[in-house]
Amino acid sequence: MIASPALPRAIPAPVAIPLRELIPWAIFAGFVMLFLVYIVGMEQGATAIVNGAGIHEWVHDSRHLSASPATDSGGSELKMVRALLIRGMLAGCLAGVVGFCFAWLVGEAPVNRAMAFESYVEYTVHHEEPEEEMVSRRLQSTAGLGTGTLIYGVALGGIFSLVFVAAYGRLKPFAARGTAAMLGGLGFTAIYLVPFLKYPANPPSIGDPDTISMRTGLYLVMVLVSVAAMVLAVMFQQRLAPRFGGWDATLIAGGAYIVVIAVCYLLLPAINEVPQAALPGLMEAVTDAEVTFPPTVLWAFRVSSLGLQVVIWATISLVFGVLAVRQLEAPDRVAHAHEAWTPATTA
Predict the structure, then answer these.
(1) pTM of the prediction?
(2) Cβ proximity of 158 and 89 under 8 Å
(3) How many Å apart are CA 113 and CA 294, to the nearest integer?
């Protein structure tokens, strides 16, 4: 007896989760996640809630390398948002672990060389007294780096899951895994890559303490403009797709995004604080270091910083996509979602 070939499993059409169920999680969990990102990225830098430099020193390496409601209402939609938030944080935790391994293996070498350059300038050129270490380099490069990447990964994974809830079923024609992959690519581009190309990450010893507030403000403006332009571009593409088709609509929306970013690049000032010795007749000195920062170290650091973000974003989007498929696209859950959510979205 010849067995009939197995038929491919049909992928159910994604059912959008009502946005009203996202609001309490976006307010509470989103605030917590953004606060964690702030602690890793800016606390005791451009601004400070806690006096001193302990937090800055503890997450020193990860900072340079990177540039829930308490009650349950019982509703199926709210439980789904909570379940996806937990899965996003789990994916982010895994991304933090993978990111730590990458940063330790690839990023620590240029960080150490940059620290050696800083020590050389302080002790040999400026003849300054050595400062007492608040946190040892051994702890910064291990426990401190791990703390920073884990917190950053979990926070980013939580925010990613909330954005996924808002986008799922609305980014046609993508299902759960495609939506996660698309959000990962768009998020990496808008939040990190585009601002990085204008204001790239710098290793230790680069950057004037007197300009840190200005530099942080400009970077945040670049991030906000890029994210807002990306959101509008995606909405624009979705509106144009029925008329022009998916490919042409994507090209038009992508072109509009590039135009906005190009204008922003032209309007925002350039910043160059990489130490450079004066070259008579060619260029003036940059900073008072009287020596030039090694360009190979700067290149290696920026490549490792970019690679760290690629690793974290790729891990979150791929792992969360797998977890979201199991949560959202099981046949029994899809049937229940059609019964429970569709009337709410059409009322």
Answers:
(1) 0.76
(2) yes
(3) 9
